[in-house]
Amino acid sequence: MKEKIIFILGYLFFTMVLLIHILIIAKIIPFTWINGGRSESYEAQLQLSLSNFIIVFIGYLYVFVNQRFQQLRSSKLFKVFKWITIIFWSVSLDSQFLGTSFEIFVMAPVVVFGIYVHFRIARLG
After folding, report:
1. pLDDT reading at 125 higher than 80
2. What average pLDDT does range 51-66 have in this prediction?
3. pLDDT score, position 109
4. Own/partner pairs, 18-24, CB within 8 angstroms, 24+ separation
5. Positive or negative: CA dihedral 108, 65, 8, 50
6. Per-residue pLDDT, 1
7. Other C-beta atoms lying within 10 Å of the C-beta of residue 55
């Protein structure tokens, strides 16, 4: 797969995550459908969704750095970081399978897509 496509898929993944949290904030997706249904109120879930904006921003930055700075992405430290992100998303996938039906049937495939994208990015030299 060409590098350009991998990076487009990376931006697409983080855009999907961003849109899901926007839909939660807009109350289009009920807060009881996410976080395993453990959020006690919309306000509690709102804080989690807003904090995910930071994660998405870091994700966009991560894809951008991999795309634009080949020398940095080849460094050993950055390679370790890239593989750690795969572990992070894999743990996230486990929690999706322990969650609500929405998390199992909607979020889990999104996370699988994210793991795939992160794996492809991690393999780039």
Report:
1. no
2. 94
3. 97
4. 18/53, 18/56, 20/107, 20/110, 21/49, 21/52, 21/53, 21/56, 24/49
5. positive
6. 66
7. 14
Count of CB atoms situated within 10 Å of the CB of 83: 13
Are the CB atoms for 59 and 17 separated by under 8 Å? yes
Q: Quick check: 97 and 108 in contact, CB under 8 A?
A: yes
Selected residue with higher pLDDT from 24 and 70? 24
pLDDT at residue 113 is higher than 80:
yes
Q: Tokens 């306000």 label which residue? A: 43
Distance CA 64, CA 109 (A): 23
Q: What pTM was estimated for this model as a whole?
A: 0.90
Amino acid in the structure at residue 72: L
